[in-house]
Amino acid sequence: MKLKEIMTKDPIVLKPEHTVCQAAAIFLKNRIDGAVVVNDSGVLIGIFSKQHIYKSISKGIGADAPVKHVMRSSKIVYRHPDDDVYDIINYIRVGRLPVVDQDLKVVGIVTRDNIAKFLSKTSKDLSEDLQYLLEHSVDGFSIMDGNGTIIYRNKVMEKLTGIPNEEAIGLTVRQLQDKGYYIMSATSFCLHEKAPLAISQTNHLGKKIMTTCNPVLDQDGNIKRIICHFKDLTDLAALQEELQNATRLSRKYKSELNTLRQHYHKRKKVVYASSQMQELMEYVARLAAVDSTVLITGESGTGKELIAETIHHLSERKDGPLIKVNCGSIPENLFESELFGYEPGAFTGARREGKPGFLDLAENGVIFLDEIGEMPYNLQVKLLRILQDKEFIRVGGNSYQKANVRIIAATNRDLYQMVQDKLFREDLYYRLNVIPVHVLPLRERTADIPVLINHFTKLYCIKYNLKKEFDTESISQFCQYNWPGNIRELENLVENLIVTCPEDIITPAYLPRRISSDVSFKIPNPSQLDDIPLKQILERVEKQVIEYAYTKYKSTRRVASALNVDASTIIRKLNKYGINPKVFK
To the nearest whole number, what is the mean pLDDT of the chain? Predict the structure, then answer.
C-alpha cells in the first residue's frame, strides 16, 4: 500500500512568519501537537512542534518571535506519495512525517494515528483470513496452550473425534485421554519433549488419523502454544486422496522451489534506473533466448557476474546448473584437470575413481568462465574445440566426451589487444565474441547510483538490524564521484557507512575524503581526449555542466535560468543524456 492511500491530505501548515503565539493557537484550535512549515510556494522548509514552544519559553524567546527562528530546518526526513507504507512503519519515531511531491511541495502528512489505523485494519483482515482458512479446511486443526489445554478447534475436529467443540475446549489432553478419546497423544510428547511430532493413530471411533503437532516456544524456551493438524486416513478413498495430495504437494514444492529461485534472483537482480542499463537488460533478455556463446566485458566491479546469472535464469537452461569458474584463481598446472576432469590413475596423486571436471558439473546448464583473459595460452586451444565441436577429452582419457553446456565468458581486460600482443588466441577470441555484452562503468551511468544506494542500504540495514538512510546531499556527492571500483566499491562503502555512522541519517560529514573532495565540476583531462571527436567531447562537457548545475540549483527552472537557456532545452538535454533530475534533489 502506498503512503498516498493512508496520509492526511491538505494538512495544517505554518508559514515561516507565523509567530510562536500564533502557532500555539493553531495547535489548540486543531488539536494537534505539531505542523510542517512551508514557504509561499508550499515547499517544505521546516517542522515546528510543541517541543519548540517549550524550548522557546525555556530560552526566554518571546511569543512574538517567528517560528522560522525556532523550527527544525535541517535533517528533515520526508517521503513521497508512492512510497510503500511498510518501508516507514518502523521508522516513524516522531509525531508526523511530511509527504512531498517531486518539487518538495507538501501534499500530505503521515501521523502515528494514520499508521495505527492502517495496522488495525490490516490485522483485522489477516485475522478474518486466518479464521476463514481454518474453518473451511478439509483437515482438522486445534490449538493448545502451554499446559495442554485446548483453546481452539475447527469444525472438522467434531467430525473426526465425535466430540463437540464446546465440550472439548477447556479440557486438557490428559483429560481427553482419560475419557478414552485417544490411545496416544502427539500433544503429550510435544509438552514433554518440546519438539514436533507426526504420528498415525486410531481414535475411539476407529478412524485412522495422521496427527502432526508443533510446539511454539517463547523467548525463554517455554511452550506458549501447540498447533496440531489432523488428517483422516481411514479408507481407500482417503489413501487415494493422499496420493493425489502427494502429487499436488510435489508440484507445490516445485513451485516453491521456483519461487525461492526467483526470490534469490530478485534479491541479486541487476539494480538500475539509467536508460543505458535498461537497453542493456532488454538486450540480455533477448540473447538469453538463444544458446550462443556470450562474452561479457567491462571494468572490475561493474556486475558482469550478475549479468551472467541473469542470462542463465532467463534461458531454457535455467533448471540446469550454473557453474562459475574463476580462470585467474586456478594454478596453471591444475587448470586442465579442473576444467575437463580426469580418468582414474591419470597422474600421480589422482583419485582412484577419477574426478569430474567443471564441464561435467555444468552438463545441461551454463559454465561461466570469469577472467577468461587469465586462461593459460596452451589450454585455450582445448577450449576452442569445445566451442567448435561441443566435445572434450578428460586428462588421461582417450575418447571424446560430449559437452551439452552453454559458455559465458567475462573479462575486464582488452582481449583484442591481448590478441595483438600474442597473449590470447585470435581464433578463440572470435569464437567467444559471438554475442558481446559490454557493461558500462558506474561513472557513465550515474542515474543508477541512487537506486543502488537505496538497494544496498535496505540490504545491510536488514542484515545488521539497523535503520539508516542517506540524505540527499550525500547521494548527490556519491553521484559526482568517479567510482574507480564501480558497484563493488559503492556496495562496500555503503556497508561501511551503515555500520560505522553513529547517526540514523548519513550526511556528507561522514563520507570519506575521496568522496567529499571530488564533487566539483571537472573539465576532462586533455590526455583522455585522444581520438575522441570534438562533438563527443562537447557533449561530455555539456552533460557534466548540467549535472553540476542540478547539484547546485536543484530545480529545472533554476538550472535553466543559471545557464541562460529555456527550461524546454534543459528537459531535452536531460532525455538526451539520460540524466535523472530527482537524483540531485
Answer: 84
Phi/psi at 223 (5° precision): -70, 125
- Measured distance CA(455)–CA(270) in Å, rounded: 10
What does the pLDDT look like over 533-567, one tens digit per residue?
Answer: 777 778 877 888 888 788 777 788 888 888 888 88
User: For 469-499, how does the pLDDT look when each residue is reduced to its tens digit (9 = 90+)?
Assistant: 999 889 989 998 989 899 999 999 999 999 9
Boundaries of domain holding 448: 443-516
Residue whose entry in the numeric block shows the C-alpha cell 494537534? 32
pLDDT tens by residue, 172-192:
877 877 776 664 567 778 888
511 and 571 share a domain? Answer: no
Domain end (from 498, 516, 534): 516
| Burial tier of 486 (Cβ tally within 10 Å: 0-12, 13-18, 19+) | buried
Tally the domains of the chain. 5
* Claim: this prediction has a pTM higher than 0.85: no
DSSP 143-158: EEETTSBEEEE-THHH
Running DSSP on this structure, what letter comes out for residue 79? B
Does residue 22 belong to any structural domain of this protein? yes
* Residue that finishes a domain, picked among 379, 413, 440: 440
- 70 HSE (CA, 13 A, CB side): 29
The full DSSP string for 272-301 is --SHHHHHHHHHHHHHHTS---EEEE--TT
The dihedrals phi and psi of 412, each to the nearest 5 degrees, come to: -105, 10
Which three three-digit cell numbers place residue 560? 535553466
Identify the CA nearest to 203 among candidates 143, 160, 267: 160
In a domain, 132, yes or no: no
Q: Is residue 19 part of a domain?
A: yes
Write down the pLDDT at residue 516: 66
Output the nine-digit C-alpha cell for 60.
526566554
| Pairing assessment for the beta strands 469-470 and 435-438 based on DSSP bridges | unpaired
CA distances, 274 to each of 61, 266, 439, 440 (Å): 50, 18, 12, 11
Cα–Cα dist 295/413, whole Å: 12
Q: Give residue-wise pLDDT tens across range 367-421.
A: 999 999 999 898 898 889 888 888 888 887 888 888 899 999 999 999 999 999 9
Q: What is the mean pLDDT of residues 71-95?
A: 79
Query: Which residue type occupies 464?
Result: Y
- DSSP 3-state of 435: strand
CB distance 305 to 410 below 8 Å = yes
